[in-house]
Each structure stands twice: as C-alpha cells, then as structure tokens.
Amino acid sequence: MKLQPNAGELGVPLAKLAVDWCLLNKKVSTVILGASRPSQIIGNVKALDVLPKLTFEIRMAINDAVGDYSQSWIGNSPCHYEDKTPPQHEGKNMTTDAQIGARLAPLFNLTGKTAVVTGAAQGLGFDTSDLLAGLGAHVVMADLNLEAAKQAAAEVHTKGGSATPMQVDIGSLDSIQALFHEVTANLGEADILINSAADRSKAETFEMTEAQWDRMLDVTLRGTFYCSREAIRGMQAKGQGGAIVNISSVGAVRTTIWGINVHYDAAKAGIDSLTRSFAGEYGAGNIRVNSILPGGMASKGGANISSSYNIRGPIMGPGRVPLGRMGSTMEIAQAVVFLASPASSYITGQIIAVDGGFFVS
Q1: For residue range 209-259, what is the model confidence (pLDDT) as tens digits?
Q2: Within this chain, do residues 285 and 331 fall inside the same structural domain, yes or no?
Q3: Is residue 263 classed as helix, strand or coil in its secondary structure?
Q4: pTM to 2 decimal places
Q5: I need a surface site. Which of 29, 59, 106, 335 has the fewest CB within 10 A?
Q6: Are residues 205 and 64 in the same domain?
Q7: d(CA 269, CA 275)
Q8: Is residue 87 part of a domain?
Q9: Active-site residue numbers?
Q10: How many domains does the chain have?
C-alpha cells in the first residue's frame, strides 16, 4: 500500500490501520516510513518499534480521495495498492538542488584527476572536456590544431574549469608518446582518457584511394590503440586504476550510411574490439575501458558532409530514429562523462549506443 504525500491529520489513522492490517495478516517483512511530518507518523505507529523486520512503505497523501482509499486499499491487499493521484507538494521543492548535489558529488566529483581528451578543440571533444573540467578534473585538451585547442581551453577557464592545451597528431606514434610524456612531466599520470579524435573524412567505395584507407585506420584505430596503451602504462604505474572511454559509432555495429563510410565504420568496429580486449586484460588493475556509440549528431562537420556527398542509407529513412531527431554533442558528452566517473565504477568492456533509439528501429 502506498499513500502519497500530503495526508495531513487524516493520514495518521489510515497509516496506523494499514500497518495493523499488515501485522495481522503477516503480509510484509520491513518498514520504511516517509511523510512530510515523519515524527507524527512514527509517534502514532508504536507497533513498528518492536518489529524491525516488518516491511511496509507509507508515503502520505490523501488528496481529497479518502473515500476511494477506504474502499480500495482493504479490498485489495494494501501491500500492493498504489495511489494514481499525482503528489501535491503545495508549491514546495521536496528535494533541493543542494540535497541532490550532496548525493551526486561522490559519484561525479573528479577533483584531483587528470583527464586527457583527444580531438578536444571542438564538437564532442570540447563538450566532454568542458563537462570534465566542471566536475573538478584538470583536462588536457589535445588536438592537432594547437591554436584551436588554446582557444577551447581559454573558454573552459572562463567557466572556472582547469584545462591545458596540448598538440598531438593521433596518426603519429612519436607525437602520441610526446603528449603523454608532457602530461606525466607536468601533471602526473592520466587518470582518464577520452579517445575522441578520429579521421572523419568520407570517400565513395570505388573512388577511395589507398592513402585514404590507410589514413583512416592510422588515425582512428591505430591512434586509439597507441593513446590507450600509453594511458594504461601510466595508470598501471600510478596503481590507482583509471577510466578510458573510446568514441566509436553506431556504424561499427549497424550500417548507417552507404558508400562513403566503409573505412570509417571498419575503423570504429576495430575500436570496439580494442575496448573489449583492454577491459578484459587490465580490469584486475581497476582500469575500466568502455565504448560510446553515438548515433547521428547535429554538428558543423555533419552539415559539411551533407552538402558535399550524396548521403543515403538506413539512418536517413523516416522513422529510423524513434526520438525523431539528431542528438547533440552535449548529449553524447554526458554519457561519456558518466563512464569516466565513479558513478560507473562497475562498468567495463561495454559498447553503449547513445543513438536516440536507432538500434531498436
């Protein structure tokens, strides 16, 4: 039985009667009392004091429906009855922002953590960096375009976040090793790695050159491997675990765009394989590795592709995204940050789609 909040004086006898009924019929095994004035309820239900194993949840709110309760809750087992009347809060916020923050802080507080985000100067990489910095992490915003990374880091600073711009060419092992050497020398070993950088160029299947194919795998797949390897090396040396989030694509699992994305989808499928392999091999050291599979994202890059190529394929069909729209980079970034945070401490080796429902359409 559940009596929703706001019962006032009428709730006390009903609550007492409900508990007595459950005691008599031995329907329950634990008690949880909740009310706007819990001391009043507890004070009137003394039977609960000597029955620590009794289970019964009472959330009080009669809401002008006392007659319905008196007829319904006894006829149906009160242990299963639930009021359908929306709770009335009398204009009060029952849970304050401060209370919510106090509960969530241990789950998302990244103070003292160093996070490396590749491809951080714009789009998903920037939004992820911004969120991580907002949660207390010092973010290394690594990008091929150093000037853009500097501007992005300055924007994070204006919001009170801590960020350091650094240059990296994800297609070069030497550049990747130099990046992580600089991070370690100045900030200590990375605790979090977000592999967001990728080659997003498109090419028609029968027009694709060997150089285009090789560049895609060098940057997108091999670059993710080398960045992860360097991060894992540091995490192992530090001995405090860590989190790696790889940005994959729904195209790694299910065809989205025909003709121009074959090399990209192949590289992203390889990233998911890396995710599972690394998660299995290094989980004992509390190093978690997961993949996020974004669906279609509304971004400047996507707009440029649409204007340059004949875009066709399953994701373009009407109704193929149940939520009926493209996702924003911030919506994807929120999922990425969850996987980088203590809130996901028991999640590893997972390939998680953030796609508006594309996979179930």
Answers
A1: 999 999 999 999 999 999 999 999 999 999 999 999 999 998 888 776 656
A2: yes
A3: helix
A4: 0.72
A5: 106
A6: no
A7: 10
A8: no
A9: 264
A10: 2
Return d(Cα 213, Cα 263) in angstroms, integer.
Answer: 6
CA pair distance 161, 159, nearest whole angstrom: 6
Would you say how long the chain is, in residues?
361
Q: List Cβ neighbours of 162 (8 Å cut-off, separation of 6 or more).
A: 133, 137, 138, 139, 156
User: What token pair was written down for 234?
Assistant: 């540091």
Query: Would you say residue 1 lies in a domain?
Result: no
Residue 131 identity (one-letter amino acid) = L
Maximal C-alpha separation, the chain: 80
CATH code of 184's domain: 3.40.50.720
Q: What is the DSSP letter of 117?
A: E
Can you give the residue range of the structural domain that contains 55? 8-75
